[in-house]
Amino acid sequence: MVVVTELLLGGSLRKYLLNMRPRCLDRRVAIGFALDIARAMECLHSHGIIHRDLKPGNPLIFI
């Protein structure tokens, strides 16, 4: 199976976190990312889809 996504300016969560160094991620932003990812996983699971490779390089973000 192949998943195709639209082109998003901003890149991955990993890229965003690396670009923030040496600053820390604001707590509210971190909680927002965590909630968004949890909601996405809940949606996938409710449709019988298991994401077996969740890591910071996979979530795509745009700010």
TrEMBL record:
It comes from the Eukaryota. SUPFAM superfamilies: Protein kinase-like (PK-like) (SSF56112). One of its GO terms (molecular function) is ATP binding. InterPro entries: Kinase-like_dom_sf, Prot_kinase_dom, Ser_Thr_protein_kinase. Signal peptide: none annotated. Residues 1-63 form the Protein kinase domain. This is Protein kinase domain-containing protein. It comes from Nelumbo nucifera (Sacred lotus).
